[in-house]
Every structure is written in C-alpha cells, then in structure tokens.
Amino acid sequence: MKFVDEFRDPAAARALVKSITELAGTDEFKFMEVCGGHTHTIYRHGIEHLLPQTVELVHGPGCPVCVIPMGRVDDAMSLAEHPAVIFTTFGDMMRVPGSRGNLIEAKARGADVRFVYSPLDALKIAVDNPSKEVVFFAVGFETTAPSTAVTLVRAKQLGVKNFTVFCNHVTIVPPIKAILDSPDLRLSGFLGPGHVSTVVGTRPYRFVSEVYSKPMVVAGFEPLDILASVHMLLQQIRDGRCEIENQYTRVVKTEGNTQALKLMAETFELRPHFEWRGLGFISQSALKVHSNYSEFDAEERFSMPGIRVADPKACQCGEVLKGVIKPWECKVFGTACTPETPIGTCMVSPEGACAAYYNFGRLHRETSLLVGQRAGV
Amino acid sequence: MCLGIPGQVTEIVDAQEHLAKVDVNGVRRIISVRLLADEGLLVGDWVLVHVGFAMSKIDEIEAQLTLDQVQKMGADYVNEIDAFNSSQIA
Lengths: 377, 90
What we know:
The structure holds two protein chains of two kinds. Chain A is α/β, with parallel strands linked by helices. Chain A has helices spanning about 10-25, 35-45, 45-50, 70-80, 105-110, 120-130, 145-160, 175-180, 195-200, 205-210, 225-240, 260-265, 300, 315-320, 355-370, and strands at about 30-35, 55-60, 85-90, 110-115, 135-140, 165-170, 190, 215-220, 245, 270, 275, 280-285, 285-290. A five-stranded parallel sheet of chain A has the order 2-1-7-8-9. Chain A has a four-stranded parallel sheet with strand order 4-3-5-6, sandwiched between helices. Chain B is an alpha+beta fold. Chain B has helices at about 60-70, 75-85; strands spanning about 5-15, 20-25, 25-30, 45-50, 55-60. In chain B, strands 3-2-1-4-5 form a five-stranded antiparallel sheet. Chains A and B meet through helix 2, helix 6, helix 7, helix 9 and helix 12 of A and strand 5, helix 1 and helix 2 of B.
C-alpha cells in the first residue's frame, strides 16, 4: 500500500480500498471514467493499482482536445494562415497535429497565432486590433462552452465587427450514449464527469440508468473522491440499485448552472452531426454558433477546406478514447508517439489518457509489477 | 484545459458587467462572474476559476482541497497559473 501514503487522508483511503475489495469479491467490474481530469488523477496517484484486480477503470472520451478530428485542425490551420487573421487558441490546441502539421508550425511559418487564457482575452485582442480579423478556436465540453457563450454576448453588446468564433464545442451525453451502444465494451457503470456536471447538473444522465440500466456516480477530482465514487458504484450494484448519484455535491448541483445553460441556449445551436476523433460521426453531439449570432461565426465568414481526414494508421487514439485498449497497448505508445512528438491527440493534452499515463502511470505500473503489488492488503 | 483553480474574490470591479478581481495563488486578475449572477457573490467568497470565468462558488475547505490537488499536478499547474497571469481581461 505504498501509494496510499500520498493521500490527504491515508486512513480513509485504506478503509475505502478494503471496503471496495470486500464489495467486489470475486466478480469482475469495469467502470469508465468519462472525464480526462479523472484519468489524470487516477494515473497520478496510481489508483488503479490500489484497486483489486477485479475492479478495472477504463478511460473515456472526456478530453476535449483529444476528440477534435484532424480535418477540424486543418480548417483551423487554414484560418490561421489567412493574412488578415489573428488566430487565438488555448495553449493545449497549439500542438495538436493536423494533416499539415500543427499551429506552432503555422506560427513559425509566419501565421499570427496567439495563445490566450480566456475567450475574453481573444475578444480584447479584437477590440485592440480593429484592422485585423480575430478568430477564436473554441473547443471544450459544457465546462468551457458557457465562457464562449458569454464572450459572444459581450461581442454583440460591444458591436465588435472583427471577432469570430471557430466553434468546436461538444456535448457530453452523445458520446456516452455512443459508448453504451458500442458492442466493443462491456461496462458495469460510469464515474460521471465533475466540472461538466457543474454546468449540466445530473439530470441529463438519467438515460444511463433508466434506458441502459447502468449506474453512474458523478465524482470529484481528489484521489479520495475517485475511491469513494468507485465504492458508491459497487454499493449500488450490491444493493440491486441502479441510479445516478452525486459524490461531488460540494460543487455539483442537481440542476447544474442554470445561468450557463440559458446563455448556451441563446448563443449556440446543435449541429446535426459532428465527427469525433476515434468515435466517428455522432448526431447532435456538437454546438455551432446560433443563427442569431451568425456575424460571429467563423464558418460563415471564412471559407475553409472542411475536408474529412483519416487518423494516421499507426495511431490508436480511437480505441483509447473508447476504452477498448489501454494507452500502453497502442503500437506507437512511448516510441514513435511521445508528449514531445505526439502522433495522436491523447498524447497531446495533459488530460489525454496517453499523456497522463506516459507522465505518471507507467512509473506506478512498473513499480507495482516489480513488487507484485496489487490491492487486497 | 478543464482545470478549475480556486480563487478568492477580492473586489467587485463592475457589477453591471459582472467583472470581479480574484486572487489565485497571490496573483490578482479580473475574471467574469457572469455565470454566477444568481449567487450574489461577495468579496471574500471562493470560486472555481476556469478560462477567465468563475464556474462555481465553493467554500474555503473545498478551495483548500482543490488547491492542494492541483498543485500536485506540477507542470500542468504551473502552466495554468502562467496562463492566468497572462490574462488581460478588463
């Protein structure tokens, strides 16, 4: 139980692991953590090696940088290379490879690509540079979409004419449904995303228990939160219950953030379909700028290639994002594909399963293989 | 990029525009508190800050727990704080 000593409350962690081990018994369980932040915590703290061998955690599609398909990156590159454009983006997106390289390379070739902390910073660049067209590369789940929504409202209020959003926001429910419909994976339940749920609340997940008969526990980001949530899932199963529970009540309300939801409804509309890296086209799974805000829609203002590009053959991000394989089972993991020279998106973002495993997890795994350590202590 | 970092409200800069100054790890920057317009945010309150927006109000204990947790992330935390430092929202 070496790793447990790093926990805030090692005694509580030990007690949870013991109880999880008893509840699991000899049956096998496979739980998916939907959120990339959880993946990061799990690998960082070696949680999968604390759990009994019968309880497996698999990683889901909840890393927003990871699910952007190559074709959209190519579209972003073409926008960035437009001579009149200042292209603004979150730092994580700079290194995501498209078929013609990434935004850092575009910048080195002379494109005006700027990293911003917030979409409001992008809007400020537009206000300060009236002779330029400023485009913001919007990515993220419902955690981040409200910030773009507020920025759009603000841009309209201020009457800014040279600001547009290249909208790639995605929503959390459709990929969960796609995974539940996929024949590849037999899941026992889900650890629900924390920050996304602060916005959407817990109600949108009801179909998981009501239609698919799988339990879900919305979880916080501390290692103890993860253990407590796994425990809650097992307890539900042993009690014969199947519910959407909230372990992260400290932050997540049942109804979510109604202000954020209202602003999103005002500024975005659902796309009929959107391509996800690894998961293919999923209907009504992404947001575009609302027609009432079309003057701020980069897809209306600029022409882009809009061409679908297949992932590199060697890359198995798709299987990693669906939880079908573990990062280390990918053919190029840690050899051709590393955080310094990523081939696939899962190696780019710190929340990507491959990057998290590369940076933290493999040390835990190697150590635990060496000492033959696995729970049940 | 989904990181939520705790910050303490030090000043309501513009109530009409929902702008507040928050202290994150000793650095003070202006963020939007538009998403918490219903919460009646006051100076001294703690919020989770994500890409220049307060996304939820939290208590001081939760703020401390989250801070401990994100600080353990090492380089990712440093990058997030650097990004926050670079923000020019006004």
